[in-house]
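Progress narrative, Year 2. Work on Large ribosomal subunit protein uL4 from Ruegeria sediminis advanced from sequence curation to structure prediction during this period.
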Amino acid sequence: MKLDVIKLDGAKAGDIDLDEALFGLEPRADILHRVVRWQRNNAQAGTHKVKTRSETSYSTKKIYRQKGTGGARHGDRNAPIFRKGGIYKGPTPRSHGHDLPKKFRKLGLRHALSAKAKAGELVVIEAAEAEGKTAALAKQVANLGWKRALIIDGATVNEGFARAAANIEGLDILPSIGANVYDILKRDTLVLTKAGVEALEARLK
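Result:
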């Protein structure tokens, strides 16, 4: 499929042939869902923790005699039934991550790129280069109509462009190796540089 290539000032800079195997698939929500769920679960800290009855700070002395009270038989105030006692079967630190085959992860990325292309939310620019001036870049982004955009560059990101984009709300930039399904789907516009397209095609073939 062919797509126009533009410059940051909006001028046309030719066109580019995009690989149908990456940008021409029929997007499948089930594949995208599985990959996003894998990403978010791996990112979850899993540091939640509650105190069990062996960790709460009450005395372990028997609170009243075993028989004759007419109430239940308790040993100490750390029992889960009491206020501020230990929690029974509460959360403990653990990993929420699970495995997903590499082939499936690559397939998910292909479907994410295809989803953006099909929705008309894919833009290809000649290069992401700037002199490090936020005001100038912000004006160009506003003129292009990008509100929540992700820019994917080649193997490395231009230092001046990254510095200029750092303070622009809603604009993020990643090298091609950092391209992932969650970040692509989260943004309204996906912007690829020509170097980014080449790097993604090499990575996903």
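The chain has a mean pLDDT of 93. The chain is about 35% helix and 15% strand.
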